[in-house]
Amino acid sequence: MEPLSEKQIRSSFVNCTKGEASRLRLPSDFTELPWGDLDFLGWVDPGAPLRAHLVLPRGDGPLGITLRVPAVGRASAVKSSLCQICLTGHASSGVTLLVAPLAGARGREGNTVGTYLCSDLACPLYVRGKRQPKLRSGRYEESLTLDERIARMAANLDAFVAKVTAG
Question: Which candidate, 16, 105, 131, 138, has a CA 20 to 30 Å from the CA of 88?
Fold first, then answer.
């Protein structure tokens, strides 16, 4: 992924207001991000830990999605141990249900779509072996090549983003 500026990131969001995008906080390590190892930028908002953000490169510019952790006591109490984007296995606290308001009028009406994601949104680093999950039973081994795992992750993320942006 090519490095992005703060302005590019803030103007990329499709499922929140311009005011919300202007108030979000960038990752605390923004200036040191390993852009060459990222297929997308994902982070938990340092100023609002129940909010997270994804920014994906697209041919016509970056596309940003804002996410949130559902209210406690509802579906958020259910945890998965497998990220649905990168298929990395984690201890149950390593994967969180995150929901995204739909883009446009349907999102303003409160409609959302959710998926289980690595809690730290570092899927590209897990796929590349640059970060290791904390598993109780050891790491899952796959026979796919790195390029195949990256392509699978991109396809899973694209499918989720298509649900968020569908008209």
Answer: 16
> Which parts of the chain fold into alpha helices (H)?
6-10, 18-23, 105-108, 123-127, 146-165
CA distances from 13 to 18, 58, 102 (A): 8, 13, 11
How would you classify the pairing of strands 95-101 and 41-44? unpaired
pTM of the model: 0.88
Q: Give domain limits for the chain.
A: 6-165
d(CA 149, CA 143): 10
Nearest-angstrom CA–CA distance, 130 and 140: 15
CA distance 23 to 115: 24
Residues 3-50: tens digit of each pLDDT: 999 999 999 999 999 999 999 999 999 999 999 999 999 999 999 989
Could you tell me if 60 and 14 are in contact, meaning their C-beta atoms sit under 8 angstroms apart? Answer: no
